[in-house]
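User: Assemble these into one structure.

Assistant: Restating your components, then the assembled model:
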Amino acid sequence: MQSLNEGQVKTLIAIECNPAYDAPADLAFKDALQKAEFRAHLSQIVDETSALCEWHLPASHALESWSDLRAPEGTASIVQPLIEPLYDTRTAHDLIAILSGQTGAKPYGLVQDTWRSHASKDAFEGWWKKVLEDGVIPGTASQPVNVGDPTLPEIKPIKATEGATLVLAADPTLWDGRYASNAWLQECPNPFTKQVWGNSLGMNKADAARLGLKNGDKVRLTRNGRQLEVPVLVREGHADGVISLALGYGRSAAGDIGTGVGVNAFAFRETLASWVLDQVKIEKLPKSEDFAIATAVTRLDAATKDLFPVLTLAGLTSANLKRNQESQPSLLPPSPWPGPAWGMVIDNSACIGCNACVMACQAENNIPVVGPEEIEWGRIMHWIRIDPYEQDNGPGQTRVAGFEPVPCMQCEKAPCEPVCPVAASIHDSEGLNVQVYNRCVGTRFCEANCRYKVRRFNFFGYTDGQEYKNLGAEVLHAQKNPDVSVRARGVMEKCTYCVQRISRARREAEKENRTIRDGEVIPACAAACPTRAIHFGDLDQNSQVRRLRSEPQHYALLGDLGTRPRTTYLARVLNPNPALEKGEG
Amino acid sequence: MTVADARLDADRVPLPHGRALVAVSLKDEDVTDLVARPVLGDGAGRGWLIAFIAASLGAIVMAGGLVWLLAVGVGIWGINSSVVWGFAIANYVWWIGIGNAGTLISSMLLIMRQRWRASINRFAEAMTIFAVTIAGIFPIIHLGRPMYFYWLAPYPNTMTLWPQWRSPLVWDFCAILSYLLFSIIFWYTGMIPDLAALRDRARSRPAQVFYGALALGWRGSARHWSAHHTFTVTMAAMAVPLVCSVHSIVGLDFAASLMPGWQETIFPPYFVVGAMFSGFAMVIVLAALIRWGFRLQSIVTIQHFDIMGQILAAAALIMGASYATEWFSAWYGGRAVDRSVVTFMFTGPYAPLYYAMLLFNVALPQVFWLPVARRSVLLLCIVSILINIGMWLERILILWMTLSHDYMPSMHRLFYPTAGDWLFLFAPLAFFAFLFIVFVRLLPVVSIHEVQALRREEAAA
Amino acid sequence: MKTLVATFHAPEALMRAAEKAKKEGFPPEDALTPFPIEGIGGVLGLKQANIRRPMAFAGFSAAVFAYALEWYSAAIAYPYDSGGRPFNSRSVFLLFPFELGRASSRC
């Protein structure tokens, strides 16, 4: 930085980073950058740094590039491209090869050269193909180091200081801001607050009450001469005097989608205080701002505890959860249909609320982005939503009890079906509640009657009528899944258990004259879930979902209403250490 | 005796059996004169013209709103993923409710031999037809794809598809259509003798042709009268179950669902009484306007308002009982979600509207137990307008309370009205006024032959 | 064959004249009045117009037709599973016939 500021830097090339936006504020990088004589920026998107450089070099996407990487424990792997580059782009390897005089060198050759020493000349091609197939390069893990017995660190007592302590964190969806122009990620709710299209200052209820703040009130943070105006969102998990803010927002050059969304916490960050900034002064402003909150966080109390049962391992066998009501009589006749009976079991103990299922569903099913204004009006579009549940954790404090993903329950006695006047919502023989887009006239009685509120309506022509439709370029036409239709204005849509995947598996099985095997159909949400919380399968076979349904912690959401949902849950089971419990009081 | 003197006569001279319904000193020709004058009289009168222009502007605004809605989508309203029904459905139920009173006045009161209906039934039925027409627009325009509304009707098609008969919306479609059909037939056939009277009195050729065509060659023959009477009485007998069933079906839109706060067996009768209540309130306002505008004080008398005030007071009590039943069954049933909805009604963000509704619908009309209150047309009009507002609030709150606060707390969402919502609330009022203003200029606003019969009855008594 | 047309100024006078003419053996063809007069039907020998029976017949047959349509479309022609409800949902299927029956009895 010193050389840059003194003007000694002749050529500055930024490779796949955005320091003009995310460098700590005390570096004043934006001004320093312009002191370099020649500036170029290699990146996928024209951003703040590109705007200040003379040349922007378009970079290939990671999925289009040859490269290599190293896992945290040292194991190396080769990055293979999935497609040829869509546009005339280059990778960082190309650029560095040019800069170091190796013009004409291709990344494929460069990567191979890096690893050529691992096999003899003749055996290299075979070794290379095996490494590509296996995915990891054997023998590259780091060796463990002997550091002796673990000891507790010495934590010096902190002197109480004036002001609050601000904790900065990477945003769960935008990370450090690099995904700000990705509308899916902007609309992906924050796992804890369910806020979309923006960030907010988190603080706990006691602090908010003390400062006289409620949700949406704007405050000005001051520290070391820097100021930041940000709206407040009261939430759990904050100690007294601690406030939090997500990085990655408030960008000034992130295209139509990301520019100006949220507040730029990087403008407040300092080199020596990157994650925890103390002595922050909070000043209430007479302004307020509306948030776009996708869905609400539910507090567990006597009325809501059945929505998200939390069991202990000790009490598991005596758990009296509301089962799937097969034993309860019904006025309605049974529906004995032949063929597979699809069901889904979601394990609340495994769900970490990461939203991977939400994004996978959006990608698979051509779900449109609706934008912050629509979310503020209360119109969400994600077919699967994750409901966070909070429980009391001491006076004035709450903590997260868990997450419950809610796709369509595909009820056997679906309340949405008999109320549709045109039979656009009906039941197929495999247990799916199907929504016939062509027949839907848009009365919305089905969503009114759905107890779980899992249906989504196209209030406007979201897919082909609104500003968020063109989230970039024609490459996004190619992104659409050709197996799934795109819904028009005025049509109701909802989770279909990825019926296109079921259909594909059925066709394959029919071609081979067999039944569909357990595990052959994996809906998008189940495929994406990192903790394998979502299980899907045929209840008529001896499948995993059928076995899971006889677990003691198995329950149906709102099971006593008689809808007989096919999507059921395994309750969250905790095994707390009794000593810890006593300690927490 | 002049008509002006007759007006004084009705208000002052008590008859042995009670108060006068029609000024006894009126002659038959005077009745016809009074009613025919605005229709056949020359010149429109400035008041009518101003009202017509104002209402036309409102109707144009409504047409513009429809174009906006159909071009852009139902997203212009404040509905969202939880509160999927808003002003449009509340308006629909409210307008049907208003329409019900007209049918009840023409039909139920005819069966019950309540002769006082004669002075008000014509414009009450007109009110019904216009109200049902406007009400029928809402279920079509609130659809996401309104151009396919006809799929709710059973017709042979290449898709071999039929409506889904278990849905209350299909019942609605049929009920509203049959209600509209009934109302038009009943209104028109009842009007034929009066149209003949207008035909006979018309001086200009176009007016003679117009009323002559509509009168279908009515001669006043005894055969005609006999058939007319039988037809009217039979239709009226069918109208009472019609009114009850139409608004019960509208109530079943909610009661046949499975949502807390909606799944209540009280809803069909509660809706019917509510409809009668709001309809009578609207009839009172219209009667007062017509009476004042066309100087019909001798035909539409204070006694009419007295009786209608009693009806309002009684209906208000029944409405109060219906609300109390809702609260009681939530408590007695013991389901947490039902109790939660009732608590939300009283303590949630919509609570001020709920209290206003209770005030307007239950508390205020109790003033009409006092005879002096019933005989003040101004007080009746004010309270009636407040009742109509209160009944609209009731409709919208039925929607909001349940949809904002149902089984899944994560989807609890409030409703915020938009400009589009307000437009579709007020513009149809202007359109209704427009239709009514055209009606009073073209057709006899009071049933001449029935008032004449009433007058003779009162004279004989 | 001559036709006599008489004009009266009061309904009572018309009734007396009609009854007298009937007693004399000249029952009136018709009575044209601006409002209905009680008893004139009896004097003229009018039967009550037979409206009720056709109306009832039309109404009931339309109701039967409507239920048959529902039953045919939902149980035979295109049965589908709607919320697990029976194909022939007897109770809820009664509302449409009720409405249609009433509507057609009027027409």
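Chain C is about 55% helix and 0% strand.
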